[in-house]
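Private note to self, pasted from the team thread so I don't lose it. Backbone tokens:
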């Protein structure tokens, strides 16, 4: 399905700046109508064959650049309950990269070029959000040790206490990305998202972006989330135990009560920079602008820089060799 402008027939997209649907062809706002697909594999705008991957829920037609939303993968069991629409625009995402890396030396010339940055794509990543309670219990023997001297004797008093703590920690919307392809560490680093800006799912938010349907089941991700929740509950419970010199016979226990699991899509700007034979990925949280990624170091620039500024300095030459060795 695509969103088509009723005024000019162009492909309307969701604009983070305007928080509305926008037609880039005639500047119209909220002029869209839905045009359904006939079959999953052809673009409803131009009829071109879509290169649709296993999990694409929204993609761009490579012939006419229209953003196509795959109904089969955004409805029924694949319909997200919530979506966090992009807050950061394409332009803002570019600025974030430029601000972060613009002043760095040794970057390849085209790393922040307009041509390369225009290839940056906004993508909705599938997430499950978990609401659950963790009951965390610590039992132990607490020791309060006191020593004093009287006459020729030193006294030590070890008072024993039975320590019992059992705390229920409610966890709200703990996220786990439901995508095989997205590295878990990257998605963990994208956090936190502010879920108060979430909206009920509407396919219009996908127009102008790429999206992936969930391709991991919520039960599969549950252990990962429970470990995080248990760690949070553990540290909260531990903080309530104070005043003891030491503890022995400590036994920790935890149990979980699942309340709700919500399928949601969260926004990420992606920039894949091809450098030599590698692709370097950069991710920007589409809501907060948080950036994750390591920039490439250009060998040629290191050489020129070292040559003009540090010429003749042996110590730096060895550093220079290390840098070149890294490339
Ligand atoms: Zn238009
Ligand atoms: Zn097309």
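Design output:
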């Amino acid at each position: 399905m695509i969103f088509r402008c009723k005024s000019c027939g162009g492909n309307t997209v969701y604009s983070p700046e305007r928080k509305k649907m926008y037609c880039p062809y005639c500047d119209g706002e909220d002029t869209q109508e839905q045009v359904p697909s006939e079959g999953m594999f052809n673009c409803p705008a131009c009829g071109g064959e879509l290169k649709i991957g296993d999990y694409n829920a929204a993609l761009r037609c490579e012939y006419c650049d229209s953003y196509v939303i795959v109904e089969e993968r955004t409805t029924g069991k694949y319909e997200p309950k919530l979506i966090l629409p992009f807050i950061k625009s394409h332009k803002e995402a570019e600025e974030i990269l430029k601000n972060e890396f613009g002043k760095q030396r040794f970057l390849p010339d085209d790393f922040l070029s307009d041509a390369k940055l225009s290839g940056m794509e906004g993508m909705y990543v599938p997430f499950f959000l978990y609401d659950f309670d963790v009951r965390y219990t610590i039992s132990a023997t607490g020791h309060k040790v006191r020593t004093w001297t009287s006459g020729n004797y030193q006294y030590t008093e070890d008072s024993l206490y039975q320590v019992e703590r059992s705390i229920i920690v409610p966890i709200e919307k703990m996220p786990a990305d439901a995508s095989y392809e997205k590295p878990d560490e990257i998605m963990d680093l994208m956090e936190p998202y502010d879920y108060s800006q979430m909206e009920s799912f509407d396919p219009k938010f996908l127009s102008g972006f790429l999206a992936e349907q969930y391709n991991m089941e919520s039960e599969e991700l549950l252990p990962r989330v429970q470990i995080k929740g248990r760690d949070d509950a553990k540290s909260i419970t531990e903080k309530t135990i104070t005043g003891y010199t030491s503890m022995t016979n400590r036994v920790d226990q935890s149990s979980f009560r699942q309340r709700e699991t919500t399928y949601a899509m969260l926004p990420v700007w992606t920039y894949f920079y091809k450098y030599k034979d590698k692709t370097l990925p950069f991710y920007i949280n589409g809501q907060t602008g948080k950036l994750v990624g390591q920039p490439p170091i250009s060998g040629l620039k290191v050489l020129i820089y070292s040559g003009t500024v540090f010429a003749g300095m042996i110590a730096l030459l060895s550093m220079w060799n290390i840098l070149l060795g890294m490339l």
